[in-house]
């Protein structure tokens, strides 16, 4: 599988580290219940189809990326810098 890094261009997936689903949001550790923290850490879906994932370009620019990928075919639809996704998420919450 090849991943097109927005900063370095197309690279082999061996240059990247996979973190997992990009959707879960960490509960506030001071306000969250033990059950909410447990669910965040241990309970994850394993969908067959399109998912947004976090990848780290360890052997390149060292950027976190959000990769939209089909888990059945490994076809990559898009790659975005994670900071841009986080900024868009925050501005959407502020609206």
UniProtKB/TrEMBL annotation:
Enzyme Commission identifier(s): 1.5.3.1
GO biological process: tetrahydrofolate metabolic process
Keyword Nucleotide-binding: no
Top-level lineage group: Bacteria
Record's keyword terms, sorted: Oxidoreductase
Molecular functions (GO terms): sarcosine oxidase activity
Pfam families assigned to the protein according to its UniProt record, in alphabetical order: SoxD (PF04267)
InterPro entries per record: SoxD, SoxD_sf
Protein name listed in UniProt: Sarcosine oxidase subunit delta
């Amino acid at each position: 599988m090849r991943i097109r890094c927005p900063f370095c261009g197309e690279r082999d997936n061996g240059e990247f580290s996979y973190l997992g689903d990009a959707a879960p949001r960490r509960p506030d550790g001071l306000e969250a219940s033990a059950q909410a923290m447990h669910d965040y850490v241990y309970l994850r879906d394993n969908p067959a189809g399109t998912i947004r994932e976090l990848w780290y370009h360890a052997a390149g620019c060292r950027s976190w990326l959000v990769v939209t990928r089909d888990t059945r075919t490994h076809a990559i639809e898009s790659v975005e810098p994670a900071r841009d996704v986080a900024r868009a998420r925050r501005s959407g919450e502020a609206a």
